[in-house]
Amino acid sequence: MVRSSDLKNADRPVKSGPATSPFGRLLRLGSLVGRVGASVAVEQLLSLVRSGPSRKLHQVANLVRNAERIVHDLGELKGAAMKVGQMLSLQDTLLPPEVTGVLRSLQQQAPPIPFDVVKRQLDAELPGWRKTIKRLEPVAIAAASIGQVHRGFLRDGRPVAVKIQYPGIDGIIEADLVNLRRLLKSLFALFTDADFGPVWGEVRDRLREELDYVNEAENLRRMAELWAGSDAVVIPGVIDAASSRRVLTMEYVAGYTPDEACDDARPQALRDRWGAVLFDFVLRGLFEHRFIHADPNLANFSFLADGRVVVYDYGCVKSVPRTIVKGYRELVRAALDGRHGEVPALLAAMGVSTGSGRPVSAELVAPALDLVLKMLDDEHPYRFGYDDQLLRQLIDMHVSRFGEVKDVRFPHHIIFINRTVAGHLGNLSRLRAAAPWRRMLEARLA
User: Fold this and answer.
1) Where are the alpha helices (DSSP H) in 337-388?
2) Which of 99, 175, 240, 326 stands 20 to 30 A from 127 (CA)?
3) CA distance 363 to 405
4) Handedness of CA 95, 96, 98, 101 (dihedral sign)
5) pLDDT in tens for each of the 446 residues of the chain?
């Protein structure tokens, strides 16, 4: 990811890198599960003497406390631990919104590692990088769970962004994957009854893909082809001569950071334009390209004054099977046409059902659809962030019926699609964007 606030990390503490001992990381993760498990066990005992609203209130408060424990420990571990936490933070359909709200703090940038360590990694991976890159700035402009980004300049003067993996992070992640499957299964069970296997398989596969910058470069090229000629979406180009499996050099395309874009100093009409671009970016990716950028963290985008949006970070990209796209198209059309009674069967055809294998009840689905349709009323365009009483009602409905929602099962292909859509709804709220959402949706269904 590349952002325009180049010195954002300059004053942040620099660490030598994530803990590398598999045994030490296992102990840390095991301790986390033990503390969370004990907390939940106590809460379950106390819930026996509570009733009604008091029980639900205490249950949610306990989940939030445990989410805070998870954030603290996974954030310090970086690697797969932090990345899995980030991925879970976007699972609004599987976890209570209060929990995902806490987990989203894992989306913030991690402290960078020292520049000397970065240069050694660069020398080992691309010994001839100085023939292509004239200068590399020592202060990281972005740092995350797997690597960090430095701005540089090619020999011909063009600015570039150089994304460099942390040394040994691939080994750390493979060790984490062995431990995380067992440990996170326990954590996951605290929040949902859904089968952890498909969720884990999807998370594991996307995480391994993110380690391969050759794969990410290919994703970037394919995305650039799909959006070629767009007047809305900007995809940075790859610099092949300075890229490898652990180093990815791209054109440096700077814009407003998310904080700058969401600031009241930006005209509301411009924020509306950016929101519409993000909304259509998801719709077109799903219904037309069947190839979606599946990491909606707003830090992966920057915003240009002419209304275009720059998209970064192509490590987590999802190719969507035709059958799933067909299912979404039929589902959305039925919802828009008011054929709510057909929705449970359409969901079942997509593999969404209760734990017993029965279709999701119409009583659970219909109120949520009613609220969504109100948000899609083009006569009075819904403004996210301002008009969020509807969104709040949707969230409250999720919490009040958490027992039923907890029993819903999702096929693995849907996991990253739902998290992408849900993540961008949060982005629209930050931008406080309004647009003819229904008209835009219907245009992509045609």
Assistant:
1) 343-349, 362-375
2) 175
3) 12
4) positive
5) 444 344 334 334 444 444 545 555 555 555 655 555 555 444 444 444 444 445 454 555 555 565 566 655 555 555 555 555 555 554 444 455 555 554 555 555 566 789 999 899 999 999 999 999 999 999 998 877 788 999 999 999 999 999 999 888 887 777 767 666 766 676 666 556 666 777 777 778 877 888 899 999 999 999 999 999 999 999 999 999 999 999 999 999 989 999 899 999 999 999 999 999 999 999 999 999 999 999 888 889 999 999 999 999 998 898 999 999 999 999 999 999 989 899 999 999 998 888 788 898 888 888 788 888 888 988 889 998 875 566 666 666 655 555 566 677 777 788 778 878 888 988 998 899 999 999 999 999 98
Tracing tokens 């301002």 back to the chain, one arrives at: 386
Write a three-state SS string for 260-329: HHHCCCCCHHHHHHHHHHHHHHHHHHHHHHCEEECCCCHHHEEECCCCCEEECCCCCEEECCHHHHHHHH
237, two tokens: 């180009």
| Token pair 């609220």: residue | 371
Residues in the chain: 446
Question: Looking at this protein, which amino acid is placed at residue 46?
Answer: L
| Single-letter code of the amino acid located at 361 | S
The token pair at 385 is 């962030």
Contact 419, 87 (CB under 8 A): yes
The yes-or-no answer on residue 295 being catalytic is yes
DSSP state of 90: T
Residue with tokens 């300049």: 153
Cα 278 versus chain centre, distance: 14
Query: Per the residue annotation, which of 295, 377, 378, 407 is the catalytic one?
Result: 295
Cβ-in-10-Å burial (0-12, 13-18, 19+) of 192 comes to buried
Give the whole-angstrom CA distance, residue 68 versus residue 158. Answer: 43
DSSP, collapsed to helix, strand or coil, labels residue 387 as coil
Residue type (1 letter), 257: T
Q: Taking a C-beta distance cutoff of 8 angstroms, is the pair 311, 320 a contact?
A: no
The residues, ordered by sequence, that sit 6+ positions from 183 with a Cβ below 8 Å of its Cβ are 29, 30, 32, 33
What Å distances lie between residue 135 and 119, 142, 156, CA to CA?
12, 17, 11
Ramachandran region of residue 213, left (φ > 0), alpha (ψ -120 to 50) or beta?
alpha
- Six-digit token pair at 130? 């100085």
Of 365, 320, 329, the closest CA to residue 344 belongs to 365
Whether the CB-CB separation of 90 and 218 falls below 8 Å is answered with: no
